Amino acid sequence: MAISNRSGNQGNEITAEEFKRWLKKFDADRDGRISVEELRQAIRAAGGWWFCTRKAKRGVKMADKNLNGAIDDYEINNLVDFAQQYLGLSSDQQYA
């Protein structure tokens, strides 16, 4: 799976694994989970100045399957799904 901005800028395309590594850079307390505030900071750092706390809460709520209030490693794919649905990211299957 590759994730890219819907604007079609090829230089912005990243894989799901690259997205996960990028997101982990915003794990400020190094607990291995992404909190609402860490998600908000990550999206804002990527140019999403419009990304408010309410949207970050929605993203965490949709991705957080164990209901601990944060996105754990195994829930990152749920966050990718949220980003595709609500943040204008698209998934492109690449075939060899």
TrEMBL record:
Residues 14-49 form the EF-hand domain. The keyword Calcium applies. Pfam families: EF-hand_5. InterPro entries: EF-hand-dom_pair, EF_Hand_1_Ca_BS, EF_hand_dom. The keyword Secreted does not apply. SUPFAM superfamilies: EF-hand. Keywords: Calcium. This is EF-hand domain-containing protein. It comes from Salvia divinorum (Maria pastora).
